[in-house]
Amino acid sequence: MSFDINDYSLGKRPLWAIFASLLIFIALAFFVLNSVAMGEGSRLLPIYSVETSEKKVAVTFNCAWKADDIPEILSILEKYEAKATFFVLGQWAKENPTAVKMIAEAGHEIGTHSNTHPDMAIISTEEVKEELFRSCELIEKAGGGKPKLFRAPSGSYSSELIKTASETGFTTIQWDVDSRDWKDKTAGEMVESVTKNVRKGSIILFHSGKENTIEALPQILEILKNGGYDFVKVSDLIYKENYTIDHTGRQHSLDR
Length: 256
Description:
Layout: E1 9-10, E2 13-14, H1 15-41, E3 49-50, E4 56-63, H2 70-79, E5 84-88, H3 90-95, H4 97-105, E6 109-112, H5 125-141, E7 149-150, H6 159-167, E8 171-172, E9 177-178, H7 187-195, E10 203-207, H8 213-226, E11 230-231, H9 234-237, E12 243-245, E13 250-253
Parallel strand pairs: 3-13, 4-5, 4-10, 4-11, 5-6, 7-8, 9-10
Antiparallel strand pairs: 1-2, 12-13
Helix pairs in contact: 2-8, 5-6, 7-8
């Protein structure tokens, strides 16, 4: 007795049609799930922190408000043998060239924080490039060198922004530890916020021109230094090549 799948059916549909439909459904489901996974994986992230076995962190300052406290910030950093990274607005550099020069001469690095502090996640690619190029022109003119690091205003970013920044020569840097000085927190609250959340490879966020930063900064550096931490520039913390960034924004070396 010979077997013919056309002789068998479920209801009014032959089994071969049911099997074909099932295969099509499986293939379609695989395609959809794979597309979703690829979409998630293709989302670009800035560097929030760095995976490292060394007890080192990067202290960073966004400079968009006043500059009166820059000399004191630099003095505190020198006392604790700390190198820092300052993300400077182009317009801030234009208005405060002496502060920019002081930062650079003290051996710290300067990155761009855009030119005018727009939400760069929603402006056009050409506007992004203009913000980056113009800010760098003003920073260089003020004596701050040529920035290679970029931090988006208000931490607002998109994949397209990071892609554009990368194509124009910038590494986009975020943070994983927030001092919350921009919320006008007390020095005690800032110390607690930083010291409770810091870890190896953290990038810490501060701002110039905020009321309690000067009081909190030496306390934070003292506690971290006593805990064995070194303070390095962002460019000395991050990996330049052969790396990946996980879903939390933590950078991992592929050479380890």
